[in-house]
Amino acid sequence: MGFGIEAIRTLPALQDKPEQSCEAADAIARTKLGDIEQRIARLTALKDELMQMLGCDGRDGAPGNAG
Q: 32-40, long-range: CB within 8 Å, 24+ apart, which pairs?
């Protein structure tokens, strides 16, 4: 879930040039943030599905009152 090799190479190079614009670093961060948000959405959907399979109501992981 960490940064890719290219980002790992790019970020320190950008840090060595503080006079440069932050656009490149911002683009890398925005891309990573988007990746994380997508993963959170997938994991949340998976969690909801598993909780439904187990008969949980979603509030505290305890079985819900379906009745």
A: 32/3, 32/7, 36/1, 39/1
